[in-house]
Amino acid sequence: MNLMLFGAPGAGKGTQAKFLIEKYNIPQISTGDILRAAIADKTEMGMEAKNFMDAGKLVPDSTIIGIIKDRLAEPDCKNGFILDGFPRTLAQAEALNELMKNMNINLDKVISLNVPDELIVGRITGRRVCGKCGASFHVEFNPAKKDDICDYCEGELIIRKDDNAETVKSRLEAYHTQTSPLIDFYKKMNLFIELDGTKDVSEVTKDMIEALS
Question: 134: which of 77, 146, 154, 189 lies 20 to 30 Å off by Cα?
Fold first, then answer.
């Protein structure tokens, strides 16, 4: 099962990816993670990406596509994968489509988790992260037992700088501008599944599994 998860930051992609990983025994491919891994492993593409980053430049699409190509060729992707956070633009989607054709890989479904912006702002700005162990809480949905204290290691819970309302709204704006053309792109390929991401986590998972069956 070759899948792509689609949705704004805070739509719940990471949570749902965990269920897909367990159910289908396939890896989640996050561009941020594989970029860091390629740099750490000093692969040819990783070193190319590092040169751009060290110069304070954005890593070009061609380099990202090269890193994804290397990742999809690894043995754990043989039975499928979950692409998360890529593509973000129409140009990236077209390049990815070409890459997969050349690798004889078909994308099975693109799952979009739809959540209104105002709800996402509430979800993200309510997040609290332990500065010591990294555990994540939410003031409304998953509160810590003691205010601002981690349940696991008693470290202090902090608000990440990217989790303030202004930054979240800016990220959402960029997301809608860049990725809205992708909806039509994947709808034309008859791959696009839209799910109501405002439902309870278990209900979203149930809807997702049903849509993939």
Answer: 77
Residue linked to tokens 């980053």: 53
Angle at 161 between CA 160 and CA 166, to 5 degrees: 120
CA 138 distance to own-chain centroid: 19
Question: How many contiguous H segments (helices) and E segments (strands) does the chain have?
Answer: 8, 8
Positions marked active-site: 13, 88, 127, 160, 171
**What's the order of all strands across the beta sheet hosting 192-196?**
28-30, 81-84, 2-6, 109-114, 192-196
Residue 189's nearest CA partner among 67, 114, 78, 101 is 101
Query: pLDDT (tens digit, 9 = 90+) per residue, 113-163?
Result: 999 999 999 999 999 999 999 898 999 888 999 999 999 999 999 998 889
